[in-house]
Each structure stands twice: as structure tokens, then as C-alpha cells.
Design goal:
Blueprint (H helix, E strand, L loop, with lengths): L21 H14 L1 H22 L19 H23 L5 H6 L2 H8 L2 H35 L4 E2 L5 E2 L1 H14 L1 H18 L3 H18 L5 H5 L19 H27 L14 H25 L8 H22 L7 H4 L2 E6 L10 E12 L4 E11 L4 E6 L3 H5 L2 E4 L2 E4 L4 E5 L7
Antiparallel strand pairs: 1-2, 3-4, 4-5, 5-6, 6-9, 7-8
């Protein structure tokens, strides 16, 4: 008999397990986000802090009249939320995006957990998608807290009373509430742009503190640019302009073109920065433990493309809107001041319990000069002086009052009354033996930078 040698059968290859679903990775990332003490602290501050602050300010005799709508906080609860919105656009929202989006990738570098995460999930794309969606979820929750808390604090303090708009016209409580919510929704676009910059910085700079601070630095840079006498096309091409252009919702007619341009520019920045962050994440070398960022590629992958976006959007804004120069000129200021004065004069007559009148009866006009008529009559500055003329109903005479204007580069101005005293020379007026605030003493206004004369 011959021995038969059996050949062992080859072992079947074990298929590689599929990548973990994005939904599971997202839940894991959300747990990590809400477990961080700084995120918990931000949630507490955003959902409680604005309401308490607005309520406390409403109890004070002195109001922040140098802030937009601050002078109306004793008149309506909606003004407090708008004051909180202005502060949030300057400091709160950039800080939120820095803490959340600016740290979502860098935290893995500090902890040295990239290899474990990649082995467990087995998909770079799903990791990026989950981290981006987790940071977006947290940011939306924090913005919702800022809006809800500030609205609640204002309504508890002053109630659902009419709000005086930027040009002096009155908004009913329901209308004011709808526009306040819309204003908060509008700032989501520039917030997303800063969050995308935070994702890019978190990936490109790794454990470096600059990645965490990048959204805040970019926001401060854009705010500084808004204070400079830049051409209006450059101003609107910066996503930070959408943090202030919401005030056009409270004018009559509404100044929507700058707002829509600001939102569109912010969304373009958000898409481009997120795409750059995604491409950079896919190309990153995770096998080298000493490499925790893009290093020299930050300039070519991050800074130069965003500079290109700024150049392209500036050209598009200039070409499509016809905007040139500062966007602030004599005719725009005269029209804005005359309109606001007419609205507020009617309000003053109502406060003093005088017979009702209409704005058409006043035939209001304004003559404004910059630097006493010397030089070009355009551009921002604190050297604008306006003389307002109107017809006094029933007396067949023309009255005049004077205002000193401080016009900022973004189109907002504060008109300070300079007499006569019985009209706008004092911040209080007598009404039926009672002392009430004088709406004509000092008021805010806004020039539409894209309006055509």
C-alpha cells in the first residue's frame, strides 16, 4: 500500500470589517464634545448669561446708549436681545467657534489618539464628517441659547412693547419679535464661516494654540477692517460684515441688499474653508507621531486660497452692485436723517399728548455738510453737521433743528441734537406734568451702502 499525503486546504481570507457608520461616529463625537468642561461651561453661559445680563441692565437707570438699540431697552424687551446680538457678533460667536471648531481635531493631537481612532473607525472621510457635524451641532445649540436667553430676559424685564427702528419708525411687538429672530438667524452664516476657519486651523496647526485661536484672530481682523475707510466692495466681501448688516432689517424700507451679500459671502467662505480642511485632512500623514499638522502647507493650502476668495468676491460685489468708494455720501445721509427725524417727531408729539399728525404734513428735509462744506462731501467721520427743516402743522411756519453726526465706516451713525432745546436740545421732555425721554435728542441711523442715489 502506498501512503496518501493530504494537502492542507488553503485558509480562507477573512474580509476586512466595514467602516463604522457615520451615525455611530457622530454619537461618539457628540459624547466627547459634551464631556468637555469648557463646552459645558459655554452651554451654561449661553443659555443663562444673556438673559440675566439683559434683565440686570434693564433695571439700571443708565443704559448702553452707545450701542445699537441700547437707548430703547427701557421701552421694549426686544431691544435687549438686539444689544446682546451686537455683543455676540463682536465677541461671543467668534469665541464659541474657537473653543468648539478650533479644537475638534487638535484635541486628538494633544491626546495622541489618532491611531486608535483610525483603527477603530477605518475611514478618514467619516471621521471628518462626524467631527464637522458634531462641532456644528454644538455651535447651533450655543447660538440658540444666546438668542432664547436674551429674548426671555428682555421680555421679562420690559414686555412685548413696540420697538423703534433705525430710522425712527415703530415696529409692533409681533413684527419686532419676528425680525429679532430673523436677525439671529442671519448671523449663522458668518458663524459658519468662522467655524470652517476653525476646522481648517485645527487640522493645519495641530496641537499649536494658534489653531484654537485662529477663528478669534480672523474675527478681530475683520472687525478692525470694518473700522477702516475701505472701499465698500472690500467691506462687503469680508464675511464679518454679516455680523452687522442685520441692522438693515430694522429700517424702512429694509436694507436687504448688503445683508444678502454678506450672507452669500459668508456661505462661500464656509464652503471653501471646509473643503480645504477636508482635503488637508485626507492628505495628512498619521504614521509620523512627530507630525501634528500641515506645517509649511498652511500658507499654500489655507491662507492663499482664502485670499483668492476675498479677491474674487470683491470683484463680484463691485461688478454686480455697482458699488464704489465708501458708499457714504451727502445725499444718502440727508435722506436718512430727514426720514428718521420725521418718524421720531411724530413719536415725540404722541408722547406729549398733542393732536395726531402724519409725516407727510411735516415736509421734512435735511441739509448736511461734512467739515463745514470744505472738501469732498462723502465718507465717514464725526464732522458731519445736519440742519433739519420741517413745516409746523397749523402754524404755516418752517422750523429748524441741528444735529451733529458721527458716521462710522460701515454706515451706522449717531445723530446728537444740538438745539433748539424744546425740540432736541435735552434728553428729557415734559408731558402732562411728567418727565419722559426725548426721542429726538439722540438717535441711531444707518446708511445703505449699496443704495443708488
Amino acid at each position: 500500500m502506498t501512503a496518501v499525503t493530504e494537502t492542507p486546504a488553503p485558509e480562507a481570507e477573512v474580509p476586512a470589517p466595514p467602516p463604522v457608520p457615520v451615525s455611530r461616529v457622530l454619537r461618539f463625537e457628540l459624547v466627547k464634545q459634551f464631556s468637555a468642561w469648557r463646552v459645558r461651561l459655554l452651554i451654561l453661559l449661553c443659555w443663562v448669561g444673556p438673559g440675566l445680563l439683559v434683565f440686570a441692565i434693564d433695571q439700571q437707570a443708565t443704559l448702553p446708549s452707545d450701542t445699537l438699540f441700547g437707548r430703547w431697552m427701557h421701552a421694549t424687551g426686544w431691544a435687549g436681545s438686539l444689544v446682546a446680538l451686537g455683543f455676540s457678533g463682536t465677541w461671543g460667536l467668534p469665541l464659541i467657534t474657537s473653543v468648539v471648531a478650533g479644537d475638534v481635531f487638535a484635541s486628538e493631537d494633544r491626546l495622541g489618539t489618532w491611531r486608535h481612532l483610525l483603527i477603530a473607525i477605518r475611514s478618514h472621510r467619516r471621521i471628518f464628517a462626524a467631527k464637522a457635524m458634531a462641532s456644528l451641532t454644538v455651535i447651533l445649540l450655543l447660538v440658540a441659547g444666546l438668542a432664547f436667553s436674551s429674548i426671555l430676559g428682555g421680555l421679562l424685564a420690559e414686555g412685548n412693547n413696540p420697538l423703534t427702528g433705525l430710522d425712527g419708525h415703530s415696529l409692533a411687538g409681533g413684527d419686532a419679535g419676528g425680525k429679532v429672530l430673523l436677525a439671529w438667524a442671519c448671523v449663522l452664516a458668518p458663524t459658519l464661516a468662522l467655524a470652517a476657519v476653525g476646522l481648517l486651523g485645527s487640522i493645519a496647526l495641530g496641537r499649536s494654540p494658534m489653531g484654537l485661536l485662529l477663528p478669534m484672530i480672523v474675527a478681530l481682523g475683520m472687525q478692525a477692517a470694518q473700522m477702516l475707510p475701505l472701499p465698500v466692495a472690500v467691506r462687503l466681501a469680508l464675511p464679518g460684515y454679516a455680523f452687522i448688516s442685520w441692522n438693515g432689517l430694522f429700517a424702512d424700507p429694509q436694507q436687504l441688499r448688503p445683508l444678502l451679500v454678506g450672507i452669500a459671502v459668508s456661505l462661500v467662505w464656509a464652503v471653501v474653508a471646509t473643503t480645504l480642511a477636508y482635503l488637508l485632512f485626507l492628505r495628512r500623514d498619521f504614521t509620523n507621531l512627530t507630525n501634528d499638522g500641515a506645517g509649511r502647507r498652511v500658507l499654500t493650502v489655507g491662507v492663499l486660497p482664502l485670499a483668492g476668495v476675498l479677491a474674487v468676491t470683491t470683484g463680484l460685489v463691485a461688478a454686480t452692485s455697482g458699488a464704489s468708494g465708501s458708499g457714504i455720501d451727502q445725499s444718502k445721509i440727508q435722506k436718512s436723517v430727514a426720514t428718521a427725524f420725521a418718524h421720531l417727531y411724530v413719536l415725540q408729539e404722541q408722547e406729549m399728548r398733542r393732536p395726531p399728525l402724519t409725516e407727510e404734513q411735516l415736509h421734512t428735509s435735511a441739509t448736511c455738510l461734512k467739515s463745514e462744506g470744505l472738501g469732498t462731501q462723502e465718507g465717514p467721520g464725526a464732522d458731519w453737521r445736519c440742519t433739519v427743516s420741517w413745516s409746523v402743522p397749523g402754524d404755516n411756519v418752517t422750523a429748524q433743528s441741528v444735529y451733529q453726526l458721527d458716521v462710522t465706516a460701515n454706515g451706522r451713525y449717531i445723530a446728537d441734537g444740538d438745539g433748539p432745546q424744546e425740540v432736541n436740545g435735552y434728553f428729557l421732555i415734559k408731558s402732562n406734568g411728567q418727565t419722559v425721554s426725548n426721542p429726538l435728542w439722540q438717535f441711531d441711523g444707518n446708511v445703505d451702502l449699496l443704495a443708488k442715489d
